[in-house]
Design goal:
Two copies of one chain form a homodimer.
Chain A: H1 4-8, E1 12-16, H2 25-35, E2 41-45, E3 51-52, E4 55-56, E5 70-73, H3 80-90, E6 94-97, H4 108-123, E7 126-128, E8 134-137, E9 144-147, E10 155-162, H5 165-178, E11 182-187, H6 196-203, E12 211-216, H7 222-233, E13 238-242, H8 247-257, H9 264-274, E14 277-278, H10 282-294, E15 303-307, H11 310-322, H12 332-341, E16 352-353, H13 360-370, E17 378-383, H14 391-401, E18 408-409, E19 411-413, H15 421-428, E20 433-434, H16 437-455, H17 468-480, E21 485-487, H18 488-497, E22 505-508, H19 511-521, E23 525-531, E24 543-547, H20 550-565, E25 576-581, E26 587-596, E27 600-607, H21 609-613, E28 618-622, H22 627-635, H23 641-644, H24 654-670, E29 674-684, E30 692-693, E31 696-700
Parallel strand pairs in A: 1-2, 1-5, 5-6, 6-7, 10-11, 10-12, 12-13, 13-14, 15-16, 15-17, 17-18, 17-19, 19-20
Antiparallel strand pairs in A: 3-4, 8-9, 8-11, 21-31, 22-25, 23-24, 23-25, 26-27, 26-29, 27-28, 29-30, 29-31
Helix pairs in contact in A: 3-4, 6-7, 7-9, 10-16, 11-16, 12-13, 13-14, 14-15, 17-18, 19-20
């Protein structure tokens, strides 16, 4: 037994810093271990006491007569290294360090934390913390609750990892009120040794853990996280709250945990690629967890609602439909039978309104019909308890009505209050109950995202045949020139080498040369400034498009030359333009890459300048991409219909677009030298062979 | 005393249909009146009992020896007309009819409801209901609770109107749990006589009602609602949940109340124009109400956060910033003093992290500094109670710390549980407490919308000098021709008559005529099919743009003619085109009008075809518009930056755009004959005098 095994499944626990004084952490942890009837031996350690909580107390861990698997450390921060040293000598296998004042406060804290980590390494001990809230394992074989909260942890199927100690306590309280049980809980604090990744790995095959919840503020190693999370998500859902979502939030997160702030698009991309559900609040985290821990994943997004009141049914429908769920009418046999079964019912709609007087039998009849209708994937019974109806009876009837169904059932008892008889009955029978219908709608729609993720086809990563050697040459030349970026013709050549079609142009340094270039290419053409290199061409009007005659070529050449002459930049005397074939009738897209400090290269895709810049309608994925990623990126855009054709416009060559993204991904994988790539615009044409990159820019990493 | 006065402030109440049987509505209502110690006389009426709940019972209301102000009616629906008749004879002034089975079930119910309304009219009685949950007035002078719920209503400053009886009960329960008090509650049911509008009017100057909450499923008379709500919103906030938001929701709402479904954009426009805050759930309704009933409206959107835990502070920041609030760093004196005052604090950030061990004194110190900082408009203290800290003490310190401030203070006690000592202390002292920081963020951002509404300048409605007579002629001609729509040149002429600039074209029925028209206008030109009238021109490629030469004119004419020849439509033999000046370099916008069955004409504005059609980025307001409305419509668009210029583009002539919308509004007011108007595109140009409508279409109402 070693590592996490000895921490979560110890046979003996030492509480170092146990205290006789009630209300102190050192007292409450010991108290919690005892009242939860830990199935092993517990040894209080404190030089100042001989007995604590009726148990013999030892001066140091070295004095404990038995072997110690796990030591909880609640001593002042200065004493932690010495205590860790003693634990090492004693042969303790795991530490959970509750004490705070380490990396999170900076200064001396960092030094102390490093000392403790070194001691752990020396003895092969593993450590959770420091600056954490403790751990829980509700498995009756262990029944271990080493936290200092007031709240009991119920036994259940949810594993919970919290990076915030304070939130951990608040969350356990909320879970208890909701009746949600945990398999294990880990407050990981500063993650000096054991990270969330390692605990995820530990829970991957744990049969008692069916759903994993995360509260994260930053990622230790996002690449490892991606790998583990992707594997786990295939058979058990991971739901996460990741704070520091906004710039201000990220700054605060950084200062209070000493962690680097990640780009939030990176987090979203990462979660999406490994099937982790990102929710926006702790409340939602638990609303989703309750559903997933107790009910099956629905097969689709079609929801049946049965309610004894119109209003809540409407609210549920509004919320569900807004979140992309389908609340279609009852039809066919179900409709006929519902009408017959429930007397006095006017219209049979979804939501089905049983009217105020409806008691248990109406619910039971309706539900037992609906559960057999193949047109629905989940069922929401909504009950608003009038004083005249027995709540418990309704709860029993709902349970009876849905018996045997494989559909997902989430109930709403609006205004009944948590802990009412009916609510408790349903919860005990595995049907989660919510106070507000909107919470069900949110939870169901999140679960639907997970279902769609599970349904995604799995793709391999493709390798295209490319001319890597020529790109190496271009890059080397740029580096030896001391260039910060590769732009213009060489940039387009890089694309061509990787099979990304690019509109090659002809360089011309005189009006005459420009005219003959245009005539060779055929009108219309576009003319842009070639030298000096101007990065944001359209900002300065440095491109003239849709030129249809020699006369227009000359005018464009002259006007561009004049423009450059007016600028205060070097190299303006060796002026030349690039004459390019004009690609008409396509849709302007932008393909790019940006580097995230934690996640590495992110590939970007969006439509035309203003769509990206004004509407921020853009998708990111972490490199490398497979075909599935590329499809999701495109289809997730609000502007996607512009690619598939609308109002008589033809669809663009989407397969060529996808291929270009995959080829860019390969380029990014092959060349670690670029910090940013911008293919803007890439014209997606409806005509085969006409889709082309018109301009590109590769920013070289600063060495 | 009459009308609503006699219903909410009666001196004597008859409970017709009072029952001796516990658990029945007839029993529970009487019970609630008595246990809430109604400050007047109550008379049970039931022919089958001589005493109910220790009070003498009368056979009919006519037998009651005293005068009766208010009668509650809880008899079977068939008996309601007879009971109403007796009430009329008795001189009862107001009825609250709880009984159901009327308009909401259709059929005979509609007939019965009409009968009751007629009887009320005959005797000058006013009625709330039928099919309602009752009413409440907590004013100690009356202390009237005529509902059949289990929940006591606390005295407070919130007036609540619910169109759903079942929701009314659920909501009162939720309010009680949150400690939110009501001034009056009205469940209005089928609104056969008294509507929400009338109750709003009644509460307008009620000093006990400071915030008004609405749960609505439909509007009786939206025009009256707008007028009253706009007046009230100036001095007391109205917060509403309007269900039936989605198409499916609206269908369900319609079937269960028999009400017509409104276009949801109409509801949003209406609420916006009269300052009503629309929230999306009952939970949010109460989160906002608690803040507004207890705290001032903040002066701006700048929020200071003080927390004893990093995680919750981060969650609050993320949620606030996502909702458009500002969480700027502490600066200047505040920063210096905070650093000095709170020892052990590393960085002074906003959210201010007092670290886990922080007790009351830290909160008090920090808050007493922050409350004097003019850079913040509201303060959120967040406390996550560790076992080692006394919650009540922290609550007292928070209260002490913010004493005397005029900023808005909303507290979060995460994981403390409703009803804990600390939470109760703050609530009793007028500081609302929330369990989750996200709920505070949502409430604050909603209140901020209200603040901005209050801050909006007030505009008069302008009248432009227009040529109304000529438009009347054009319309009359179209009607006498039996046309369903006015399109093409006459449509553009209508705009011109109202001072909306339009690109007038020249009609040409031969190649030659087209060429000379183009030469007269000057190249480039656009050519489109004039006859036969084709409504969606771009769908069929019926417009050729950017024509630069006589050769291109001829090609366009021929291709359009060929296109029409291939269509199966009448009138294709008398083919002609319209040659228009081409307006280059502007931004395509769409201006229009659509008619909502309840709200009447809605004016619409959005950018170009795809922005409206694919991105749905479009604004609606209810006609008539003033300058303020027009400004809000434009500035609210995601695509607004395309009008103000970006990436080197020049800003378009926004004042001309605004004026055109106002002129259209006047046209719509003057002509009730159009069901739909579409000015598409209206090119907004950066050059003065170049903004022009290029195409327009007026659909004539079916008579």
């Amino acid at each position: 037994m070693k590592g996490l095994e000895s921490i979560f499944r110890p046979k003996s626990v030492a509480v170092i810093g146990a205290s006789t004084r009630k209300g102190t952490i050192g007292h409450e942890i010991l108290h919690n271990i005892i009242i939860n009837e830990f199935n092993g031996k517990v040894f209080p350690v404190n030089p100042k006491a001989s007995v604590i909580h009726s148990i013999k107390c030892y001066s140091t861990v070295l004095d404990v007569p038995d072997a110690v698997d796990l030591a909880l450390v609640i001593v002042p921060r200065e004493a932690v290294p010495a205590v860790a040293e003693q634990c090492g000598q004693k042969g303790v296998k795991g530490l959970v360090v509750i004490s705070a004042g380490f990396k999170e406060v900076g200064g001396k804290g960092i030094k102390l934390e490093n000392e403790v980590v070194d001691i752990c390494k020396k003895y092969g001990m593993r450590m959770i913390g420091p600056n954490c809230f403790g751990i829980v394992n509700t498995d009756p074989d262990y029944s271990l609750n080493c936290t200092f909260g007031k709240t009991k942890a119920l036994q259940g199927k949810v594993g919970f990892i919290s990076q915030s100690g304070a939130l951990g306590e608040a969350i356990m309280n909320h879970a208890y009120e909701l009746g949600l049980g945990f398999s294990m809980v880990a407050s990981i604090g500063n993650k000096a040794d054991i990270s969330a990744n390692e605990i995820l790995e530990f829970w991957k095959d744990d049969p008692d853990t069916k759903v994993i919840l995360l509260y994260l503020e930053n990622f230790g190693n996002p690449r490892i996280f991606t790998k583990i999370a992707r594997e786990i998500s295939r058979h058990k859902p991971i739901v996460a709250v990741k704070s520091g979502r906004t710039r201000q939030g990220a700054i605060a997160a950084s200062s209070h945990t000493g962690a680097l702030a990640e780009l939030d698009v990176g987090v979203d991309a990462l979660f999406d690629q490994c099937g982790v559900l990102r929710v926006s609040s702790v409340e939602e985290l638990f609303d989703v967890a309750r559903a997933m821990a107790n009910q099956p994943i629905p097969k689709g997004n079609r929801v049946a609602i049965v309610s004894n009141a119109g209003g809540p049914g409407l609210l549920a429908t509004d919320a569900l439909v807004n979140l992309g769920m389908d609340v279609a009418p009852y039809t066919g046999v179900t409709k006929t039978k519902l009408k017959k079964a429930i007397s006095g019912l006017g219209n049979v709609n979804n939501p089905l309104d049983l009217v105020a007087g409806a008691g248990g039998s109406s619910f039971q009849k309706a539900l037992s019909l609906i559960k057999n209708d193949k047109n629905f994937d989940s069922i929401i019974p909504i009950f608003v308890p009038p004083v005249t109806i027995n709540q418990l009876e309704v709860a029993k009837s709902i349970h009876e009505g849905i018996k045997g169904t494989k559909k997902t059932v989430l109930a709403c008892f609006m205004g009944a209050g948590e802990g009412s008889e009916g609510v408790n009955y349903l919860k005990q029978n595995g049907i989660p109950v919510y106070i507000f219908p909107e919470a069900i709608a949110k939870a169901l729609s999140q679960i639907d995202i997970y279902r769609r993720w599970l349904d995604r086809p799995r793709y391999e990563f493709k390798a295209f045949k490319v001319n890597k050697k020529r790109v190496e040459e271009i890059v080397e030349e740029a580096i030896s020139n001391g260039d910060e970026a590769i732009v213009g013709e060489p940039a387009l050549e890089i694309l061509t080498c990787y099979g990304i079609p690019a509109a090659m142009g002809k360089i011309a340094n005189s009006e005459k040369a420009a005219v003959s270039a245009a005539e060779e290419l055929g009108f219309p053409v576009a003319i842009k400034i070639n030298t000096p290199q101007i990065l944001h061409k359209t900002d300065m009007g440095a491109v003239v498009i849709d030129i249809r005659s020699a006369k227009e070529v000359k005018a464009a050449f002259t006007s561009l030359k004049k423009k450059v002459a007016g600028l205060k930049i070097k190299g303006k005397d060796r002026f030349s333009v690039s004459v390019q074939e004009m690609i008409n009738g396509g849709v302007e897209t932008v393909i790019g890459m940006t580097t995230d400090p934690s996640f590495g290269p992110l590939i970007m895709f969006g439509l035309g300048g203003i769509y990206v810049e004004v509407l921020k309608d853009v998708a990111f994925r972490i490199n490398p991409l497979n075909e599935g990623n590329v499809t999701e990126m495109m289809e997730g855009l609000k502007t996607y219909p512009l690619l598939t054709g609308q109002r008589g416009a033809e669809a663009v060559d989407i397969s060529k677009l996808k291929e270009s993204l995959l080829r860019l991904s390969q380029l990014v994988t092959d060349f670690d030298i670029f910090s940013e790539i911008d293919i803007n615009p890439f014209i997606a044409s409806s005509i085969k062979g006409k889709s082309k990159a018109v301009d590109a820019r590769f920013i070289i990493k600063k060495s």
